[in-house]
């Protein structure tokens, strides 16, 4: 078999066989195929696409390029959740405890963030003492006892994806649905869960800006999951504005705790219940979606979801006094309001720009080695559909510096305010099974 023939085949729009995909991944990983040939194949895939079977095979060999986490010692049906990423996304802190309280084990490996705010692991580190590195044995023990553990990524998961992603990044081939779908699913499948619920974001703050592309990506990932024997469901959710009102690290943890304690922050609660409902049905603890939503609401009302969160933090050495009194979480020196310069209804928000503003404050990393400042961030006061009067605050910036002209400018430009009344945004667009 020769790589040049594989490239030509895909360039001509023909299907690659399983053996050809296996050949290319294995030989690329052992440095027998150079980057320039793989870059050429990525471009051919970008233009010609891949069918379901090819995409599933690509995913399979990316998974096999590294370690697969063995969760066989975790009792019960393991269900994982994955978000394609957005601004203010603190869903793991809401969904994880909810599902754990319902009895589903969640053994989650999460990443650090590059971009707007920290990733799940960075956000958890806002809690003093919280340990993101557990031994394998302790990780399994915690999941069995408390049904929830979240650790930083360990092991060598899907190294072929890492190598391919770096190459795609510099060859303008990231934006291909089969390549994105196989990249995300290879990491999820290697993480060891039995079933997967995907939260595919759509809108101004999402990787996929249009609903049509988000649906295509979701369908592709669901098919890969099924093809590789994982029950997979994708929820397509709104990312035309940040999730909830808090964007940052410690303030996002605080907001998630408030939801777990019963505060009705509508979008967070709706999406949290939706994702948790699919997870608990897939995991077999509830038999219907309707039953699941009702029971999950009860787990918030009766304090069990919050208790599951508290137990999980305590089991990973986090200081629970900050969970019981969130005013003890890290905060910033200054709290500066950005006022509206006109009155009207908020029609649109550039969620990505608001995320970038949070990064400029220090809530996220511009480069891999940047340090996260857990106390800084943004509190939104208005969301799409809300009325704002001139000189009313749009947001509060939590900052450690007072020179914020650039950030204030980004925020003002990120809001589109118009006299005409407008509806609130829809949260869930579709569910792909
Ligand atoms: N996120 C991933 O993990 N992979 C992609 O290809 C794109 C986004």
Can you describe what's shown?
This protein is α/β, with parallel strands linked by helices and 433 residues long. It folds into 3 domains: 3-49, Transferase, Pyrimidine Nucleoside Phosphorylase, Chain A, domain 3 (Up-down Bundle), CATH 1.20.970.10; 79-324, Pyrimidine Nucleoside Phosphorylase, Chain A, domain 2; 330-418, Aldehyde Oxidoreductase, domain 3 (Alpha-Beta Complex), CATH 3.90.1170. The protein contains 17 helices and 13 strands. The chain has helices at residues 3-11, 18-29, 35-48, 52-64, 91-101, 120-124, 136-146, 159-169, 177-190, 211-227, 250-260, 266-282, 289-301, 304-315, 321-324, 351-361, 405-414; strands at 79-83, 106-110, 148-152, 195-202, 231-238, 246-248, 334-339, 344-349, 377-380, 387-388, 393-399, 415-418, 428-432. The strands form 4 sheets. It has a 4-stranded mixed sheet, sandwiched between helices. A 4-stranded antiparallel sheet has the order 6-9-11-7. A 3-stranded antiparallel sheet has the order 10-8-12. α10 (211-227) links the parallel β4 (195-202) and β5. It is globular, with a radius of gyration of 22 Å. The two termini are 37 Å apart. The mean pLDDT is 95. Residues 165, 174, 179-180, 183-184, 207 line the site of uracil. This is Pyrimidine-nucleoside phosphorylase. It comes from Gracilibacillus marinus. Its cofactor is K(+). Homodimer. It catalyses: uridine + phosphate = alpha-D-ribose 1-phosphate + uracil; thymidine + phosphate = 2-deoxy-alpha-D-ribose 1-phosphate + thymine; 2'-deoxyuridine + phosphate = 2-deoxy-alpha-D-ribose 1-phosphate + uracil.
